[in-house]
What we know:
Elements: H1 8-28, H2 37-52, H3 66-77, H4 88-104
Amino acid sequence: MSLPESQKPIAFILIILLSIGAFIFRYQSIESMPVHHDEANQIIKTGKLLEKGLYHYDPHEHHGPSLYYGTLPFLWASAKTKLAECDIQHFRILPLLCGVILILL
C-alpha cells in the first residue's frame, strides 16, 4: 500500500517527530534502570577493549564485537580511558541510537 503524494510529507514529519520523541523519552531514563547481567558482561568486555585494546571472540559465550567496538567512539568522545571513569549512559547510548534508527527504518 502506498501513500498518496499529498500525505507523504505528513508521514515523514510524523516519523521524525516519533523518532525525536523516542530518543528524548529513552534518554531521560537512560541511567534509571538497573544494569542486567548481559549488559554488565558487555560493559566489562568493552572496558577491556578500551583499556587494553584486547578482544577475543568466543562464539559459545558472548555476543560479537559490534557493540563493543561501536561503543568505543562514544567513550573516546567523552575522553574516557578507563572503565572506572565511565557511566552507564556511555554504554547505553549506542543501543538507544540503534532503536531510534529502527523507528526511522
